[in-house]
Amino acid sequence: MTAPILACDELTLDEADPVADACAHIAAAALTPSPVGRVGLELELHLVDLADPGRRPDWTRVQELLATVPPCPHGSTVTVEPGGQVELSTPPAPDLSTAVAWLQADREVLREATGALGLGAAPLGADPARPVERSNPNPRYVAMEEHFASRGCSLPGRSMMTATAALQVNLDAGPPALWSSRLAHLRALVPMLVAASSTSPWLGGRASGWHSMRQQCWDGIDHGRSDPIPVGEPTVAWALYALNAPVMLLRQPDGTVPVTERITLGDWLRDPARLGRAADRADLDYHLTTLFPPVRPRGYLELRCLDALPDRWWPAVANLAVVLADDPVAADAAAELCAPVAGAWATAARDGLADPAMRRAVAGCTDLAARRAPAALRAQAEALAQLAADGRSPADELRRRAETDGPTRLLEEEARA
């Protein structure tokens, strides 16, 4: 890395040096001082035509759904991903139990709207049955697809965009004095969370053998935008991560165009001719939306490593993530449980609970989270803990059903549930 970027750790705003200026801008917006306790949840679901579950609903059907979904009672927004996946995103709730109750209620609103149109919505980490295909014509997604193709990762890039779904947990950043330890703790939890939450043993009609094929997709794209943020003071680490990440998209007056060479943000700032013009603050902010580490700072903290899960599981997995992050007693115990697997990213995604050390971490953490769960979530948390104690995970059940009944039947059943 060159000296101008390394000088960023002083966070000196120097408008004459575009790299230092960009670094200071990104770092300043990374995290917002706050108490700890609020929770936001986002759940993505694959839309399914119940009359023809093996065929992805076209964009006209998706638009029809968006036009008929009434406002959610708890304020969740409804958006659509590149493959027509629908995302429900709650506002920040004062605590985990409230966030879960809000998402459950707003999920019922979506369920009624989809049912009225002969559609269902399956919250699974990957679409197990249908071919990988983009249906959303948004120019950003068209350009993303072209970028991935130009960089030699077309299939994992398109699969990630169009055939995967997540449960995202959003947490307060906390007081600045705790930022470094809080980010390091969340990073250490990620492998265990990946192994515990996987619901993607099949994708696009095939099984690769990975415990989480959703994570396999992330592993197949440019690691400069999907790897964890390096250890260090987190606002600086995030700024350096962004400066060294490749630019994916370029905003133009007539739309969004893909960047088809590997040009980092730092390269662009040092030599504006590389992309035909200088980057402005809006370009910096847009670049950050194309970076996908498993824990991403956006003022608050996004946990992006969890697969979407059916309704019988996602509240317990949300509890697992939040309790082990925000409950000081549980966090300390979880740190000890996860220490042996804290860097085992690939093992978690490929092997899951088949790895003995990962199985111990998941079993210990799910039991801990069940014992520290709020009363409203304790029964579901205990069920997840029992599953892990038996050496099983949601992915194991789904794999068995896909192998027995076929992936299309699995998708249809989860869309109707």
From TrEMBL:
Transmembrane segments: none annotated. Keywords: ATP-binding, Ligase, Nucleotide-binding. Gene3D superfamilies: 3.30.590.20. InterPro entries: EgtA_Actinobacteria, GCL_bact_plant, GCS2, Gln_synth/guanido_kin_cat_dom. One of its GO terms (molecular function) is ligase activity. Its EC number is 6.3.2.2. Residues 388-417 are annotated as: Disordered. It is an enzyme of class 6 (ligase). Pathway: Amino-acid biosynthesis; ergothioneine biosynthesis. Residues 393-417 have a biased composition (Basic and acidic residues). It catalyses: L-cysteine + L-glutamate + ATP = gamma-L-glutamyl-L-cysteine + ADP + phosphate + H(+). It comes from the Bacteria. Belongs to the glutamate--cysteine ligase type 2 family. EgtA subfamily. NCBIfam families: EgtA_Cys_ligase (TIGR03444). Catalyzes the synthesis of gamma-glutamylcysteine (gamma-GC). This compound is used as substrate for the biosynthesis of the low-molecular thiol compound ergothioneine. This is Glutamate--cysteine ligase EgtA. It comes from Nocardioides nanhaiensis.
